[in-house]
Design a protein that fits this description.
Blueprint lengths: L2 E5 L10 H9 L4 E4 L9 H5 L6 H18 L3 E4 L6 H18 L4 E6 L5 H9 L19 H5 L3 E4 L4 H6 L6 E4 L6 H9 L4 H11 L7 E2 L14 E5 L4 E5 L4 E2 L2 H8 L8 E4 L2 E4 L4 E4 L5 E4 L2 E4 L3 E20 L2 H5 L1 H15 L9 E8 L19 E9 L2 H16 L23 E15 L9 E6 L2
Parallel strand pairs: 1-2, 2-3, 3-6, 4-6
Antiparallel strand pairs: 1-8, 4-20, 5-16, 7-10, 8-9, 9-14, 11-12, 12-15, 13-14, 16-18, 16-19, 17-18
Length: 466
């Protein structure tokens, strides 16, 4: 008995080579799966309810997937929408699905599963005494989730496990499209429903979740032009799985598969998922041929069923200014100048109070913008730096005004060695202080215990074209 999965690459709207997709379909997969939700781009996309990339690119990716899957008669399970919130899922995404179905004269029956959680569901649990602990030890996150944090959030989504997708597959659908979900969930639902070993399914899903990232070029001097934006193929057996690329220029190696098995977690051997943990400490990896790796002996340990809640709240409005500096005398005293800017902007914008009505941040790229005080290289002599000024304030007008003021104050500073009267910096665009709209931060990153894995996630069966 075997189960074959063609893994797609959905994040960020990249389209992978058509010949790769065709090659994958020739292997006769039982399922096409892909994950298209993640929080790597930060809280802004959940806060604003928007996708990370626009309609043109996403439509190309959806058309490639849906038309090929329908033509081959292969079901698909995918998560979509960056943050996976309802505004993107039921608006942006389903509008695109409808267009694809209509333009290609396809009749589709799809299960749509929301990943956005009703605040009342969470507050009801809290009021009944359910403890919802934080997943990250950070001062911005309450130790245990409160009703105040829930009610003060802009949106809340949850990482669904594979169970809601399994339930959706009972409805004889062409495919399942979800909002926020575990990266592995779209890959796991169907093979677990078919009775395959949960540990092997979870481990294969982990390897396949990011497509060809688990592969390397056969010839480093001649890599595929699309890089790792490509598909991957997995075959489940009773006691092992096989994983290989579908691009002829790539290969899976023990190192590449093992590396991605360790990907994105603190403990390289344990991946916690809703309802249990995948343990790969004793997993065995074998190179079967030039491009295929065999994996066996993965373990699954059942645990209390919990889902990860992700929520954001608004902190005001953001504006920025970007200053390129190449003058050595300015670079030498840049920190002193920025301290003066902060002090004088504070005086100029009274009665607004820093830390209450606004915050002003400076990041000096080329010096220590990334690590800040942790930067180990303290003695350097960069020939150019970029100062990113960031303002977050109660209103967009205040944020933009402060950004303009800060940039002008920097321009007008006097210091030893100065040889100009104004032009200390190069500005890369005009207007030089764009307002970036509402800003958000994470306020919920908590683990909620639930009894029914499907209860928080609403499902609808929909037909397309609508």
């Amino acid at each position: 008995m075997e189960f074959r999965i063609l893994g797609t690459f959905l994040n960020h709207g990249y389209i992978w080579p058509e010949d790769s997709f065709v090659a994958g379909l020739k292997r006769k997969p039982h399922l096409i799966a892909g994950q298209g939700t993640n929080m790597d781009p930060g809280p802004g996309y959940l806060g604003r309810g928007v996708n990370i990339i626009g309609q043109f690119a996403v439509k190309k990716v959806r058309q490639q997937l849906i038309v090929n899957a329908k033509k081959a008669g292969v079901p698909f399970c995918i998560s979509v929408g960056t943050s996976g919130c309802d505004d993107v899922l039921f608006g942006f995404e389903l509008d695109i699905i409808d267009e694809v179905a209509r333009e290609n004269k396809l009749k589709l029956k799809l299960a749509i599963i929301s990943g956005e959680v009703d605040r009342r569901y969470i507050t009801s649990a809290i009021n009944k005494g359910v403890k919802i602990p934080r997943l990250v030890d950070h001062p911005r996150l309450s130790e245990f989730l409160t009703t105040g944090e829930v009610e003060g959030s802009t949106r809340i989504v949850a990482q669904m496990g594979h169970e809601p997708i399994m339930k959706a597959l009972d409805h004889d659908v062409d495919g399942v499209i979800t909002g926020r979900a575990m990266d592995t969930a779209p890959f796991m639902a169907m093979p677990i429903k078919r009775g395959f070993n949960k540990a092997l399914v979870a481990h294969l899903a982990k390897v396949m979740e990011c497509g060809a990232i688990a592969t390397v070029p056969k010839d480093p001097k001649d890599p595929p032009t699309n890089g790792s934006v490509d598909g991957i193929f997995g075959v489940l057996h009773d006691d092992h799985f096989l994983v290989s690329p579908i691009n002829s220029k790539q290969k899976c190696t023990v190192a590449s598969v093992l590396s991605h098995s360790f990907y994105e977690r603190a403990d390289p051997f344990v991946e916690r998922m809703p309802g249990g943990a995948l343990n790969i400490a004793d997993a065995v990896y074998e190179q079967v041929d030039e491009e295929t790796v065999k994996v066996s002996n993965s373990k699954w340990v059942d645990e209390e069923y919990t889902i990860k809640l992700e929520g954001v709240r608004s902190i005001g409005f953001r504006a920025i200014s970007l200053l390129g500096i190449r003058n050595p005398s300015t670079i030498r005293v840049v920190d002193v100048l920025l301290d003066r800017v902060r002090q004088r902007a504070g005086l100029q914008f009274q009665p607004h109070i820093a830390g209450k009505d606004y915050d002003l941040y400076f990041h000096v790229y080329g010096k220590n913008a990334i690590l800040g005080e942790l930067e180990p290289i303290t003695q350097s002599d960069p020939h150019e730096v970029v100062v990113l000024m960031v303002v977050i304030a109660k209103t967009q007008d205040l944020a933009t005004s402060l950004a303009v003021c800060a940039r002008n104050l920097f321009t007008q500073q006097q210091f030893e060695g100065r040889r100009t009267t104004a032009g200390n910096q190069a500005l890369p665009f005009s207007p030089s202080e764009p307002g970036l709209g509402e800003a958000h931060v994470w306020n919920i990153m908590h683990r909620m215990p639930i009894k029914d894995p499907c209860e928080p996630f609403r499902m609808q069966i929909m037909e397309f074209p609508r």
